[in-house]
Amino acid sequence: MPINIPENLPAAKVLESENVFVMTQERAMSQDIRPLKILILNLMPTKITTETQLLRLLGNSPLQVNIEFLQMATHTSKNTPLDHLSSFYKVFDEVKFNSYDGMIITGAPVELLRFEQVDYWDELCTIMEWSKHKVYSTLHICWGAQAGLYYHYGIPKYAFDEKLSGIFSHRVLNAKHPLMRGIDDIFYLPHSRNTGVKTTDVRIHDNLEILSMSDEAGVSIVANKSGRQIFMLGHPEYDRDTLASEFFRDLDKGIDPQIPKNYFPHNNTELTPKMQWKSYANLLFINWLNYYVYQNTPYNLSDLM
């Protein structure tokens, strides 16, 4: 089934060229079903790229999904054209009376700042509090996951000695958990971050369960027992070349970054990286949509509590 997105969204042409089933809003109105309503709070600087990455995963399930994009009213994006934001994005005041089956909160390049130093932190806290009552299940990604764990559970983040960047293997800790169904005992996901959380800090909360761990990347996927909050500290949505783009960007800035681990063949930055995580990323998103959004959300979203 398709994802329902605005007809002129740049991601539409890319997804259609990849045979991802997308549907315009006009056509979707003729469908006699209730599609899922998903709100994406996009905090990434490269918003158009992130839109395409997330929509590619959301469009790979048998469910019809209506997408809305949200931006922060208290932050000015420097890397996305204003006409794109005004055409496709809303601010919180425009959606706060709505209810949603699911929401995604993306990562953001602000990890080295204290949460309270981020210029839109207060607004983000308002949105995360609102999500507890107006969204059935919220999926937090990378910095979004760290922000969610901090706001909802008081779990701090810790800075690494050097940036964690690369493709890392992970162990499934509970194969029977709905989010992990169909995932191999060992699976791979990209990480690109300067901070993380400690296992001991998560495990003191009885309402949280660590679903996967990595020897190198640490805590990877966490869920609360109800499934209404999912925290993924990696970047399952990343494209094949995303880590390469970040690496060469940092080189151009004179940062002298480490080569992403387990990424370039033979650590040769002139070779094309192998895609090792696409199937796992797709399955994680399908499981989230199926088990924690579609099968659990009340038909009447006004019944959400």
Model description:
The chain has 305 residues and is of the alpha/beta class. The chain has one domain: Class I glutamine amidotransferase (GATase) domain (Rossmann fold, 3-Layer(aba) Sandwich). The protein is 30% helix and 25% strand. The protein has helices at residues 10-17, 25-28, 47-58, 82-88, 92-95, 121-134, 143-153, 199-203, 242-252, 278-294, and strands at 3-4, 22-23, 36-41, 65-70, 89-90, 100-105, 135-141, 158-172, 186-196, 208-214, 218-224, 229-232. Strands 1, 2, 3, 4, 5, 6, 7, 8, 9, 10, 11 and 12 form a twelve-stranded mixed beta sheet that branches. Helix 1 (10-17) crosses helix 3 (47-58). The longest helix is centred in the last third of the chain and has 17 residues, at 278-294.
What Rg do the Cα atoms give? 18 Å
For the residues shown, what is the average pLDDT? 91
Listing every helix as H and every strand as E from the N terminus to the C terminus, the arrangement reads EHEHEHEHEHEHEHEEHEEEHH
Q: Are there runs of 5+ residues with pLDDT below 50, and where?
A: none
CATH architecture: 3-Layer(aba) Sandwich
> Which term fits the overall shape?
globular
| Secondary structural class | alpha/beta
Q: Can you say what the CATH homologous superfamily is?
A: Class I glutamine amidotransferase (GATase) domain
The biggest sheet, with number of strands, parallel, antiparallel or mixed sense and barrel status, is: 12 strands, mixed
Q: Which strand-content bin applies to the residues?
A: 15-25%
Quick one: how many beta strands?
Answer: 12
Mind telling me the CATH class?
Answer: Alpha Beta
